[in-house]
Amino acid sequence: MQQLFGQKVLNDFIQKQDEKLIENRWQKYKNFLAKKEKISSWIETDYQDGFLEDIFENCLGYISKTRSTDEHYTLEREKKNETNAQKADGALLVDDKVVAVIELKDQKTKDLDKKYNREESAVRQAFGYLQYNSHAKYVIISNFNELRFYFDKATAYEQFFLFDLDYEGFKKLHTILSYESISKELPHVIKEKSLTFEQDISNQLYKDYTAFRTKLFENILKNNFGSGVLTPPLSGTEVPPPLDKLELLNATQKLIDRIVFILFGEDTDLLPKNTIGTIIQKQKEVKKLVKGFTLYDSYKVYFEAINAGDEDLDITMYNGGLFADDELLNKLVIDDEVLDARAKILSAYNFGSDISVNILGHIFENSISELEEISAQLLNNDFDKKQSKRKKDGVFYTPAYITEYIVQNTLGKLCEDKREELCIGSETLVSPKNPKNPTKAEQQTKENLLLYKEWLLNLKILDPACGSGAFLNQALEYLLKEHKKLQNDLALMGDLFASYEVEKEVLEHNLYGVDINEGAVEIARLSLWLRTAKRGRPLTKLANKIKVGNSLIDDKTVVPNAFDWHAEFPEVFAQGGFDVVIGNPPYVFARENMSQYEKDYYIKKYQSANYQINTYLLFMEQAIKLLSPNGFYGLIVPNAWLMVYSGQGLRKYILDNTQVNKIINLSGYSFENVSVETIILIANKSTVIADDISVLLSKGTEFVLSHTKKQNDFLNNEGFEFRVFSDDESSQLIEKLQKNSVILDSIVQIKAGLQAYEKDKGIPKQSADDVKNRPYDYDYKFDDETFKYLDGKDVGRYFISWNGLYLRYGEHLAAPRTFNLFDGKKIIIREITGKYPNSIIATYSEEIYLYNRSNIGIIEKENKSIALKYIVLILNSSLMSYYFMKNTAKSVRQMFPKVILNDLRQFPFKEISENDQQPFIQKADKMLELNKNLQETKQNFINELKLEKLTKKLQNFEELTFEEFVTEYTKALKLKFADKLAQRNFKQEWQAIFENDKALTCKLKIEIEKTDKEIDKMVYELYGLSAEEIGIVEGV
Q1: Are residue 308 and residue 273 in the same domain, yes or no?
Q2: Which member of 220, 266, 421, 883 has the greatest number of CB atoms within 10 A?
Q3: Are residues 534 and 682 in the same domain?
Q4: Are residues 323 and 204 located together in one domain of the fold?
Q5: Are residues 937 and 913 in the same domain?
Q6: How many domains does the chain have?
């Protein structure tokens, strides 16, 4: 559960509330508590009015419509929505406007997120009302005991259990939900301040955490490197090999992890308050008696105490491995001042209230990136921050609403299905009338609950690239909640032994993780310990559950950190494999970070491996292999695999071995610093074909159903493409376009542009300096082999806007291509596409232009009488934009949507006679001429401006009024008029030029738009579209 507010910020607001008012209303709240036993048995309709009166009127200060003495009221029962006939159970009003909707259930509805009797869940019902009330921003849902308060979105809420609320809890409820707070929009203020506080404290804590680790590592190196603490010095030198520095780095991180646990423990009652301060004070005292007793010696005393327990120090045993005896750590020499000053800084934070799990997650994630940077420097490797662990090894901090959704739809689905199988849904349970002598049916229910407990404890959940542990922590949270629900159900059925240690059981039995990065594994373990540690209970040993290794390779002759799954987790595969595999696997291309040995291994071992290997494809296949029959997996992966040629093997493997349940398009940036658009894939291991695959779109932090697809359709598609972005209506239209058409690749040659620079390519081979300095680039025509050179941004629809650059052509280029791509008749298509309906941006040219891979070239194919001007016209049409958008994965990206070679080759074209091509060629000639005139007209005016740098507004001057132009131009010139006369003269000088060129430009644009519509009509007729189908294309 994501909380709405930061605890520290909320507590600050609670302290500022009117204590007398709260105390007065608390007395009334006691009346509600006095009848909670009766309320538990009352049905929804009998107590809804009473609940609104007891809680909202008597305790939170609202005035109901029925009890108002005038026309002013702030609470209304069964409030009708503004735009439909449905009614919420209640509504809160401020200034006669609905600001909150209330959905009420009775105690039979144990789970507010769950559907009952085929109805929508309480949460869904409530948010359905929210969208029909224009001023509403809050949602309140309750089953008379549990009460949830939402702000705008269903992903985070504040939760109260009303039957168990004490005075402090009531103060919190009152601060958030009282009329005095709602009318002042206090929840909004608290939320904004919480976000600011979390961001600020995250940044500052990370700075302090990083500074501590940096100083500590520097000090450890100074005092221990080459001193004999590690391996003996090499013969003839005192400098140990670089690996020893890495050992010291790993030791530093482990020491930091221990200190973070102590910091967390002293603020959460795991350890005595101010343990860090006590460690420092103890050293000062002992140093007077024992010469040379260092602060680190004092820390080691406490490390041993935390590991084994110490009554004198009031410390219970936490021996999960973090504080186990470590020979290297024991031998380290560390200066007092480093541990003293830096640890005090971190100790000043309150890890109990200020530092949330979310903040720690970000700290841990960035910590891994920093570790990589230091490791690379120690090994004298080049380090590129843009290629840090976030991209190389895939250590991401996945947003909580995404991990929660994936866990709910994999692990949660398994649990739901099992409860249904055992007939133990919470809504069906009724307490035995005579617990000492239950009926046969009641006894069976109890036995089924115990079977469910045994099943639950035996689940095996894996993240094969666990990083800092976001998914494992989310799975842990779900299981804790499910066990709590189970304990309540067992207690309801009269089980006297319903209570058991949930956290320990889950960590010992359910959660597994593997990561290639040792630092990530240590941090993942620490994050799980911090979430589950309890005073007086040893830490669960996680070394046999969260392990270091290469999840994709099990052969140590290929890589030294190979991971043999069956040998490492025999208990899992003894029962057939993992029940759930979840995660966000790394995206690593073969050309970036793989040895030839690894590539050969992958091609031999994985069906999804081919000439273009990317680790995320391998992880997707591996996830299925690791699953038990009917197990679920949920992964976040780039959306490219859905349709790219290199994903064909994986798609076939998925279709043959799994039942696909859901595909969720995460449009836009999903993860910081990772410029890849992603989807969530939810599926289960089964050979049964899915009748309906739900395709959902992300809207903010929620996922909304768009349409459904059938798995059989993907099996029948060429290359087993997952064409998920078109609904049934669009799919039928796509099929019609393809019918009686040929693919573009069959009638023309389609090639990528050249690659000018790449290390070790070209003749002679290019150096790293060549790639950096670009020696073959010119801003003038150097010789007869130097030609105009286009980048992607230089290509427009029916025109070229050359940037003034030249490139010297020849075999010295990394991938020069054949010259016929650049000479003579050709179509040049910009890879980055435009906005619909002008998605494809293509032009025709007969002039020599070199162009790079940001463009695609089309030239004529021998023995084919297809005019390129006919082709360019069809490509630039609205219909081909529609086809592109509905039939290619990279078209729907918000980050640089692009057309790629393999997609373009499959575009459906009508192969018509030369005579029938003539009307299209004439229109193409007209568009080329119109656009040439447009560009020249605009350029003439722009040249008059004599500016080195143009603003976007001035580039599109025709869209401005004259006064807007004057404002923009004088700003660009940094011109200030001496007086009114100077300003008037300036305007007189420019007005005629501006108005004339604007009129010419607008006239040309109108003619272009008119011709575009004529072309679209011709193309619709060519492909035989009906009026209804044209409406579909133009209605996008």
Answers
A1: yes
A2: 883
A3: yes
A4: yes
A5: no
A6: 5
**Same-domain pairing of 586 and 603:** yes
CB atoms < 10 A from the CB of 346, how many?
19
Q: What is the dihedral of CA 638, 3, 426, 628, to 10 degrees?
A: 30
- To 10 degrees, the CA torsion angle through 347, 282, 329, 342? 30
Q: Which amino acid is at 527?
A: S
For residue 155, the enclosing domain spans 7-184
Cα separation, 268 vs 273, whole angstroms: 9
- On whether residue 734 sits in a domain, the answer given is no
Residue 391 lies in a domain: no
SS3 assignment for 964-1011:
HHHHHHHHHHCCCCCCHHHHHHHHHHHHHHHHHHHHHHHHHHHHHHHH
The CATH number linked to 520 is 3.40.50.150
d(CA 182, CA 100): 9
Per DSSP bridges, beta strands 138-142 and 908-909 are unpaired
| C-alpha distances out from residue 733 to 729, 806, 830, 882, 908, Å | 7, 44, 26, 10, 12
pLDDT on residue 539: 85
| Rounded-to-10 torsion of CA 303, 304, 307, 310 | -110
Bridge-based pairing state of the strands 138-142 and 97-104: parallel
Integer Cα distance of 1019 and 552 in angstroms: 49
521 and 670 both lie in a single domain: yes
Q: What is the DSSP string of 187-211?
A: HHHHHHHHHHHHHHHHHHHHHHHHH
Q: Which tokens belong to 102?
A: 């209330």
Q: What is the CA radius of gyration of the chain?
A: 34
pLDDT at res. 394: 34
Q: Which helix (H) or strand (E) holds 573?
A: helix 570-573
What is the three-class DSSP state of 747?
Answer: coil
Place of tokens 């001057």: 957
Instruction: Output the pLDDT for position 533.
Output: 85
Q: Tokens 């940036």 belong to which residue?
A: 669
Neighbours of 947 (CB within 10 A): 13
Sheet holding 786-790, edge to edge: 777-778, 806-808, 786-790, 850-851
Asked whether residue 97 falls in the same domain as residue 73, the answer is yes
DSSP, collapsed to helix, strand or coil, labels residue 137 as: coil
pLDDT of residue 382: 45
Q: 886 with 944, same domain?
A: no
- Is 1015 inside any structural domain? yes
Rounded to two decimals, the pTM is: 0.78
Beta-strand pair 795-796/799-800: antiparallel
Residue indicated by tokens 């579209």: 1025
pLDDT at 889: 60
The answer to whether the CB of 298 falls within 8 A of the CB of 286 is yes
What are the mean pLDDT values of the chain's consecutive 10-residue runs (1036 residues total)? 81 93 96 92 89 95 82 81 69 92 88 72 84 84 94 85 95 96 94 86 86 91 74 48 73 90 90 93 92 94 93 88 90 92 86 75 72 68 44 52 93 94 79 83 91 96 91 94 89 78 89 89 87 84 92 94 96 97 82 76 90 87 97 93 87 94 78 68 91 86 87 88 83 89 95 94 94 95 95 93 95 96 95 84 96 95 92 96 80 66 90 95 97 95 90 92 93 89 92 95 96 96 94 85
Distance from chain centroid for Cα 806? 41
Calpha distance 455→419 (Å, rounded):
10
- Tokens for 794, please give them: 């230089």
Burial class (CB in 10 A: 0-12, 13-18, 19+), 4: buried
Task: Note the pLDDT of residue 890.
Answer: 61
What would the 3-class secondary structure string for 470-519 be?
A: HHHHHHHHHHHHHHHHHHHHHHHCCCCCCCCCHHHHHHHHCEEEEECCHH
In our burial notation (b when 16+ CB lie closer than 10 A, e otherwise), range 365-403 reads bbbbbbbbebbeebeeeeeeeeebbbbbbbbbbbbbbbb
